[in-house]
Every structure is written in C-alpha cells, then in structure tokens.
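Extended Data, panel c. Modelled sequence:
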Amino acid sequence: MVNRNNLNVLVCPLGWGLGHASRDIPIINQLLRQGHSVYVAGDRPQLDYLKQFFPDLRTIHFPSLKVNYTGFSTQFFSLLLVALRLPFFNIWEHYRLKKIVTEYSIDLVISDNRYGLWSRQVKSVMVTHQVRVIPPFPFKWTQRLIELSTKHWLKRFHQVWIPDYSNGRSIAGFLSKQNGLKNLHYIGILSRFSDISIDGILGGFELVVVASGPEPQRSIFADLSAQLAQKLNLSCLIIEGKIDNGIIPRNANGVWHVGHLPDLQFALAVKHSKYLIVRGGYSTIMDLITLGVSGLLVPTPGQTEQEYLAEHLSLKGLFPFVEQHNLLNVDKKNMEVESIKNINTADDTLGKLISALYPFR
C-alpha cells in the first residue's frame, strides 16, 4: 500500500533550455517540505542545473525530443519536423516511463510539458501553460485539429497544473485559457525566486541580457545584444543560459558573458540594471514578474508562443517588445527597467500548489 505521506515522486522537465527545469524548483521544494522522496528524470543539462539546488537529488537520464532551429526568421520546417516526430516520441516516452515507474517504485509522476509521461500504473500530473497551441502562419487552418489533439493527450493525465491565473491576472492569455477539460488546475505563477530573499547590490552593468532557448537562435540573439551594447556604449553582461559555460564572467570585445548565475546574483544583476533585454520564454517572464521588474522582450523568431506572449503582455502594459531583426534599432527608452507591482505573491503560488498536491498526500 502506498504511504500517502511519503511518496516517491518523479519530476520530468522538458529539455528545451533551462526554463522548464527552473520553474520546477518550487514544485520540488514543496514536495521535499511535505516529506516526499523526489527523483528527477531529464536531459543532462537540466539534471546538472537542478543538482546545484538539490545536491542530494536522485537523477535519471531520460532525454527529451531534440529540436533543431534554423538561423532564419521562420522556423516553419523545424516546427513541421517536430510535429511529425512528436507523436511517435510520446509513445516511446510513455513506454520508457513504465520501466522507470517499476524500477524506482514511483507513486506520482509530474511531467513538465512532456506529453508522453502519463501513466495508468500511478497518478500523473502535467505542468504546462499551453493548453492551447498557436500554429505557424501556413497552418492556421489546423488550429482546431491541434486543439483536439492537445486535449486528447492532456486528458490522459489525472491533473493538469497551469502556472497561471484563470482570471484577469492571467499572464499566458489565450495559451492557458480553459479548453473544456475537467482536470485543469490553475496554480499561480511558478518561479525559482518565490522563496528567495533578495538583499544586496550587484553593480557595474548598465545593460543585462538574458538569453535562452535552442540554438542557433540563442547565439544570434546574444551576438545582436552585444552589438547593441557596443553601439550604445553601455557596460553589458550577457547571461547566456548555458550551464556548461560556468558562472565566471569573461570579457569579449568589451562585453561580459557568463554561462549562468546563481539565483541571488541573477536577481541582483537584473534588479539593479538600468536596461534589461530578455528572450520571451514563459519561465523567464514568470521570474521577472516575481522579481517585480519589466524588461524588453525579444521573442525567438518563428516561435509562435513567444511571439504571442510578447504582443499579449505589451497590450497589457507589462512588457515592451521588439522583433529580433529590429533589435539594433531599438530605442533605449524601451529597454529601461520598470517596476511591476501587485501581480504575484509567493504565498499565493505556494497556497495553490498545496491545494493541487493535496489529493496525492
């Protein structure tokens, strides 16, 4: 019989950048506080990243579907290839999960945006802010078909946790809008900064750039940002989102680069910069909202989710945005760090997490 007060929980973040792993940190913290045993399964960079926060975490190498973007403004063929491969990969993930559940005596699976990780053996949860997917322009006519397919996969999970709000405070807008499923639970914003006390000053950089996402677009974005800093003669730190590049800054042509930063240093660098430019991933947006700051969003070209979020949040007056090909022409005013207030509190997020976890205790 399963001990509901001491579950073996498997957390599985998607391996497309560090965002999914970072937003799972408060979930893992909550599970550990409740006395559960946590395993994390995923790609090597995500496992290495989470081990920095949880050195005793037990990890399992369980790779995600690989995505190869192009250097062009459209990702039509890249996304088409993903769409064709994804159903088959989901099936492989599902059967690989069965073996893991048996081998490690898993009681609960929490999958962050990995659609194949549902289970009939134990209860399973999906974490996603996208219950609706926006297809690229040539496939707008497939919107309804994609919605039905997404519902088909999501209904296999016992619960779907949406890191957003269901009311007017919604950050993801259309992406997280109720789609008729009965297993949806809005749990509030998830951020690795929810539990961190930010005290101190990290000075020296007028412009901070937060890069993320798949290559080659991440490097293209970082290179353009470096050119912008040189053009405007701004002291600049580019946080590359590459854990393998370490936490020691290095200077290249007058611009500082660092692979990634520990949470406190990251928060201080962002909050005390005069100008801020970030890739428009949802996890980064949740982090900035939790930190109470707004910066310039630069969505990945051709990634419809980020393009929608940038426009949606601009209309809400929360974040300005610019398309990547116009970054070198951006007005400095649009890059200025602004304060965001009364949007999210850690207590609200944690309260919703507790409520969502309760049935499994």
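Residues 76-103 form the longest helix (28 residues). This feature is highlighted in the accompanying rendering.
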